Amino acid sequence: MNRKWTHTTLLVLGLLFLVFMLRTVGVEKVWHALASLGWGLVPLVLLEGLGEMMHTNGWRRCLCYPFRSQSVVRLFWIRMAGYAINYFTPTAALGGEVTRVSLVAPAGHTAEATSTVLIDKACMALAHLLLVVAGAGLLLLGGIRLPPVLQTTMLVSGSVIAAGIIAFMLIQKEGKLGAVLRWRLVQRLAGARSQKITDNTAAVDEALRIFYRDRRSDLALAVIWHMGGYAASLLQTWLFFTLLGLHPGFVVVAGVWIIGLWFDLVVFLVPMSAGTLEGSRIVTFAAVGYSAVQGMTLGMVVRLGHFSWAVLGLISYAVLAFKPGAPSLSPAHSELRTATRTSAPGR
């Protein structure tokens, strides 16, 4: 209840901040800038989908057989269904992951699917962080000088988030993610229910250990695919400038993209990025010498892309929920999986 109340509060505050920014920048000015994009809004929104498709390929590298045998198109719509749940509901980005697990895995095999979603989240976060770090170096080499306060904030927040991501991946690698959760729940519950929770989290931890030990190439490829997914927004940023008749150099376009990525990394807790998406682009454009109207307009374009694909995700969720197509795990595969666990080296 407290978590839902926190996220609802953040959502309301974000929306109020968004209204305040629109009134300050000027609704008519922003609307005129959006209208000037014309049909260019279509490819801008489609580029959002291209990025999500690349993120889907990153998730696919985290999947184990037979979940991985599903078509990339089906996995894309499963991912978008989870994306929609996260976007429209105050579930702290958890409801969508539960949705992904339920749609990709047959009943009784959620431990494997849960581990793939957790690994995918870690790979996405690492890819995001690597791009921000590399982009910060590009900004310095390109001669873009950010305000000292913004530089310090980026450095401190980036360091904290980097430590969190690395710790999260190390805990996964060692198979300790469920330890604290099990301890807290077992203190409150007893009997069969407590034992069931312990067994489930132990199975997830085991699947995590196996992945990090045996599938390092897939781990690297997942991070690379996710980096490609985030890079799609670089193309989106370049196209936005072009449609407005602006032609800054590559370093400026990349600077806008990188600073925007950094803001997205540090404000991920705000539902729907309400207010933070547009506000961050205003700050970003000001940092590279452009107007608040242009920054606000890019934020609205990105939001339109998010909203459009989230609506499609809701539709896909309705279709997938009534048309299950998750692969079944055969007895032979289950036995092979068990044998692999018990005979794996280093166990």
What does this structure look like?
The protein is mainly alpha-helical and 347 residues long. It has one domain (36-284, 307-325). Helices cover 80% and strands 0% of the residues. The two termini are 41 Å apart.
Which key phrases capture this entry?
14 helices, 347 residues, globular, mainly alpha, disordered C terminus
In DSSP terms, counting alpha (H) and pi (I) runs of 4 or more, how many helices? 14
What level of helicity do the residues show? over 70%
| Low-confidence region ranges | 185-198, 330-347
- Give the integer mean of the pLDDT values: 79
Percent in strands: under 5%
Order of helices and strands: HHHHHHHHHHHHHH
Radius of gyration: 22 Å
Shape: globular
Report how far apart the termini are: 41 Å
Described by strand count, sense and barrel closure, the largest sheet is: none
- Work out the number of β strands: 0
Helix vs. strand class: mainly alpha
Count of distinct structural domains: 1
